[in-house]
Amino acid sequence: MSKGIGRGDHVALYCINSPHFMMSYFGILKAGATVVPINLLLHPEEVQFLLNDSEVKTLIYHQVTDKAVAAIKSGLKTVENLIAIGQTSLEEADSFARMMAEESDDAVLVLPEKEDALAAILYTGGTTGLPKGAMLMHTNLLANAASVAKALKLEGHQDKFLTVLPMFHSFGATVGFLTPISHSATVIAVPQFAPEATCKIIQEEKATVFMGVPTMYAMMTNIPNESRYDLSSLRYGISGGAALPVSVLENFEARYNVPIYEGYGPTE
Which of 17, 116, 157, 206 is a plausible cystine mate for 189, CB 3.0–4.6 Å? Predict the structure, then answer.
């Protein structure tokens, strides 16, 4: 709000899985603006294209993307504000931490003018040419979260979602934090997947829901037998992003005694 962000503005979020990502995402929506999540795996030139194509006014970025932002900032046509989460080499960037410390508790909630107001623009690879921005409305996000919660039979505050899938992606966003947050569940944000580290976090945090793509389940199944992890807190795993081979499903369920549910949903 202090940056003049309001209804109709586009704000890019270039950040790892973290509380900062979720705080920024909901803060952008609270200001009445539209969030544009940026794929962390893209080349800086591709990021520049997305930011210009979506006419982003403000860019919120994590310190791990500092070099990429520094490399493309001169080519950004519409960006007026840079906000850095953590350390940055850019003198013109404002500090996320400072802004949070100075933010008033009386920040105004800007409600959408209509139910189908634009909430997020998620870029997809498309079938040909350059990435295309899928325009998702508030009603899209709410309906998605409600349908996921119903399908998963969520138990509200008793559930803990371990979210290692990228939050900038539709799968990681919808199932990984929009659904649990809107249904009073806990989100354990993990910025990077590693089989043993992920199993250790599930065990220590008593996570009840895990989301992954088939290769993640295969890698967790293939952890050496001497490395024993207790994943009994999981009510189930959720697989998406690609077809789950039957052998991977059966081997994972046999080793950890945790069922896997498979889902599908396009970014659009």
Answer: 17
Residue 251 above 70 pLDDT?
A: yes
Beta carbons within 10 angstroms of residue 19's beta carbon: 10
CA dihedral 111, 113, 115, 117 (to 10 degrees): -100
Span 1-44, pLDDT tens digits: 567 888 889 999 999 999 999 999 999 999 999 999 999 999 99
Three-class SS state of 188? strand
* DSSP per-residue string spanning 125-153: --SSSS-EEEEEEHHHHHHHHHHHHHHHT
Q: How far apart are CA 59 and CA 90, in angstroms?
A: 13
Classified by CATH at the fold level, domain 10-111 comes out as: Rossmann fold (3.40.50)
- What are the tens digits of pLDDT across the range 58-75? 999 999 999 999 999 999
Q: Quick one: tokens of 60?
A: 């919120």
Give CA–CA dist 54/59, Å, rounded.
12
Fold of 139-262: Rossmann fold (3.40.50)
Q: In the chain, which segments carry CATH 3.40.50.980?
A: 10-111, 139-262
Roughly how many angstroms between the first and final C-alpha of the chain, as a whole number? Answer: 29
27: Cα separation from own chain's centroid: 14
Residue 258 predicted with pLDDT over 90: yes
218 pLDDT band, cuts 50/70/90, is: very high
Torsions phi, psi for 131 (to 5 deg): -55, 150
Any idea what the Cα angle at residue 163 is, between residues 226 and 192, rounded to 5°? Answer: 65
